[in-house]
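Rather than argue in generalities, we reproduce a single protein record, letters for residues, whole numbers for local backbone shapes, just as it appears below:
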Amino acid sequence: MDPAETGPIDVHLSIEPVTALLLNYGRIGPVLPASSGRALAWGRKPWLAPGFSRRFLPA
């Protein structure tokens, strides 16, 4: 994404591709991938990670 303002990044995500697909389609919850290390979030505001996929859904 290309934000209007450049500044510190709030959250970094590292997710395995298959896990990301299943999470985005709602086939699995975020607890299992996070606890098994398949999905990692770090940065200034890591709590933003669970809502990331909702930003791409149509309103």
